[in-house]
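[SOLVED] Predicted holo structure with adenosine-5'-diphosphate

Edit: marking solved, answer below. Original request kept for reference. I posted the sequence and ligand SMILES and asked for the 3D complex as structure tokens.
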Amino acid sequence: MSRLEVSSLTHVYSVGTPFERMAIEDVTFTVEPGEYVGIIGHTGSGKSTLVQHLNGLMKPTSGAVLLDGKNIWERGTDIRALRFRVGLVFQYPEYQLFEDTVYRDISFGPRNMGLEESEIDSRVRWAAELCGVDESLLSRSPFELSGGQKRRVAIAGVLAMQPEILIMDEPTAGLDPRGRDEILSHVQRYHKERGASVLLVSHSMEDVARQVDSVLVMQRGRLALRGSVREVFSKTEELKEMGLSVPQVTAVFARLCAAGLDLPREVFTVEQGVEAIRKLMIERGILA
Amino acid sequence: MKDITLGQFFPGDSLIHRFDPRVKLIALLLYMVELFLVKTLFGFVFMAALLALAVLISRIPMKLMFRAVRPLLLLILFTSLLNLFYTKGDTLFRVWKLTATWQGLELGLFMVLRISLLVLSSSLLTYTTSPIMLTDAMERLLSPLKALHVPVGELAMMMTIALRFIPVLVEETDKIMSAQKARGADFESGGILKRAKAMVPILVPLFISAFRRADELAVAMECRCYHTDGERTRLKSMAMARRDHVLIAVMLLLIPAILFGTNRVAFSIIPKTL
Ligand SMILES: Nc1ncnc2c1ncn2[C@@H]1O[C@H](COP(=O)(O)OP(=O)(O)O)[C@@H](O)[C@H]1O
Ligand SMILES: [Mg+2]
């Protein structure tokens, strides 16, 4: 498994034209092997630009991306091979489907890797199963599927490459709560089963709090905060200033504490919240 | 992809940017006609100097202007070579069976200057006028044709929509390309057949999304009862100012200046002794 380092990364769009724009500036962080990292930030804060550097789709204006200590833009590095190790699922990935069957679409990545036919077949079936794409759908056209199904097929297309580092750019945007939970559980399963590092770009503080080990907060192209879920979400005021928030349940518990109830402040998921309240009720003899 | 400069608009607020787009269009047409009236090297130098002055005022970087000519370089070179060898006149030099002439050299040079100035002047217009303003200007200039049942409004509307969606499609192509590259697609290597095949993963999603957008736009327009035959008011009205009148006057005065001025200046590269 690999270690991903980003060092003083800066990207300027349209250099030398009136449209010149600094999208990310001097960003430095490390993702340890097997770590699950959330990336949050306001729209336009540079999240998508940042993640496209990690698999060499964009070239840094300055700074470097290092995989296992090796600069990915060093001479002689095979950037295509790198993209099989660092898998990237774009925002609205369903718009990239193009094959006539779901099966062939999922097999596009593995086929580009030059794998054997039998290996391709087992990977396609494995990825489809992992992403909840039913066997019966494999022979259908991807364009006949529902939005949520298309999304899962597109994600399976990247997972079938079995990347060591999986990056997802807002994978749940525009889905209903059930579709969102399903996608996140597939990603969680991939993370656990393969021990892969995952970077999840998300708008939803709830999703981030529930899924990840640590959080990166982007603000106007800079890395504003970096820490564990607990560290980041305890900085309510700072997040508010950046136009972000803490998970709703955290805000609720802050109010309950302020009202004088003896509850922990550091509650980030609904499950933790339920547990804390249950404990309080038992203490007070309301619940047995 | 991002470097497509064809007709790219560079916002600014120079004098050239502020001229009424209709007037700019007419001025460009006049300039082009005048380029065909010019018969002497002196005339071309004069016309080039005028354009250079306009570019300076517009503050469009010269580098950018020349980028516009680059795609046509081959064509320009080819036509001027044809002129060089296929014009009858006094021998300059011989290669194999071909004879280059002084007259051919001059004609070739004129051709290079004429095409370059044509391209440069139209680029200046598109660099300093937003595409939407341009179509708007065209619609207004052509509106008398409505009397002849030419669907000027519809044509302008289609043009505006097409222009409006070019950047969208470019961005979309970029995105889809990146997404397929992330799955290991390879657009850079292989023979022509392999490269053509590699385009399928881009073209299919691109067409699907273009059709979807067209459909959505049509529905949205219908929901607002869009009709081309009604009289519409505009968000931005165009009004001519004094500077616009001056520009037209200057461009018109150039015609006699060329016919009776620069065309009579005996200033040629052909040696007198021949
Ligand atoms: N292709 C592009 N060309 C120019 N500017 C861009 C491009 N893509 C994004 N930007 C700009 O870069 C900034 C960061 O964008 P992005 O990385 O998409 O942010 P996020 O994903 O956090 O919403 C934004 O201000 C955006 O306008
Ligand atoms: Mg984004």
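OP edit: Residues 90 and 169 of chain A are 5 Å apart (CA to CA). Thanks to everyone who chimed in.
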